[in-house]
C-alpha cells in the first residue's frame, strides 16, 4: 500500500477517534533529552515497556511514553495513533517500535518527522513471522496463515535465563494478534537516523531479516546474543536499552 493510498483513505475513510492509553515516565524540570515514544505491537500494551524501559530511560534524562495499540485496529489506525501522540508531545519525538510495533513505526516515519527511530526485533514481514513460527510454535501459528490471530509462546519470546514464573506472568498479560505486512514503508521524512536492534537467538525474527531491515536503513543491526524476542522484558533487559540510549545520546548531540 503506497503512502498516496493511505492519504486518500484518510479523506474518504478517516480513522475513528478513540481514547488512547499512554503511559509516561517524565523527567523532572524542563531539561532533558528528546521524548521517546515506545510502540508495542498488537497483543501487548504500554505495560510491556512500563515494566522496565520507561523508568530506565527517564532516569537517564529521556522523557518516556508508551502507547497501547487500539483494540482491533489495523495498520493504518495504529500509524494514525502514533502520529497523533507523537505530535502532541512538547518536542520532536524519537519513535521506538518493537516487533510488529516496529512495522507501525516504519510506516509512521513516512508521515511524522521523527528526531530518530529505533526498530527493536522488527517484524516487517507477515510471512517471515509465520515461517519462523512454524519451527517453534506450529499450533499458535496456523491460524495466522488463514488471516487469523497468531499466539506466541514462552520459548519464542524469552530466553531460558528468564524465570519461568515471570515469563508465564508476562504471557498471561498478552493476547494473540493479527499480523501486518509492510513491504515498502516509504522514505522517512527528514531522513532521521534509524537503529535496528535484535538478537541472533530470536525465534521470531531471523538474523537474515535483521540484516535486511538494517541494510534498508543504511546500517547493520546492533545484536544482543542470548536474548529472546521480547528484549524489554527478558533477562538482561538493561543492556539493549542502555545501548539504545547511548546511541541516541550520540546521534542527537551530533545533529
Write the layout of secondary structure elements.
Layout: H1 3-12, E1 22-25, E2 36-39, H2 47-50, H3 53-59, E3 64-67, H4 75-88, E4 94-98, H5 100-108, E5 116-120, H6 126-136, H7 138-145, H8 154-157, H9 164-173, E6 194-198, H10 207-216, E7 222-223, H11 238-254
Parallel strand pairs: 2-3, 2-4, 4-5, 5-6, 6-7
Antiparallel strand pairs: 1-3
Quick rundown:
The chain is an alpha/beta fold.
Written account of the structure:
It is a single chain. With 255 residues, the chain is an alpha/beta fold. It has a single domain (3-125, 182-254), classed as Alpha/Beta hydrolase fold, catalytic domain (Rossmann fold, 3-Layer(aba) Sandwich), CATH 3.40.50.1820. It has 11 helices and 7 strands. The chain has helices at residues 3-12, 47-50, 53-59, 75-88, 100-108, 126-136, 138-145, 154-157, 164-173, 207-216, 238-254, and strands spanning 22-25, 36-39, 64-67, 94-98, 116-120, 194-198, 222-223. The chain has a 7-stranded mixed beta sheet with strand order 1-3-2-4-5-6-7, sandwiched between helices. Helix 10 links the parallel strand 6 (194-198) and strand 7. Helix 4 (75-88) packs across helix 5 and helix 6 packs antiparallel against helix 7. The chain is globular and about 40 Å long. The relative contact order is 0.15.
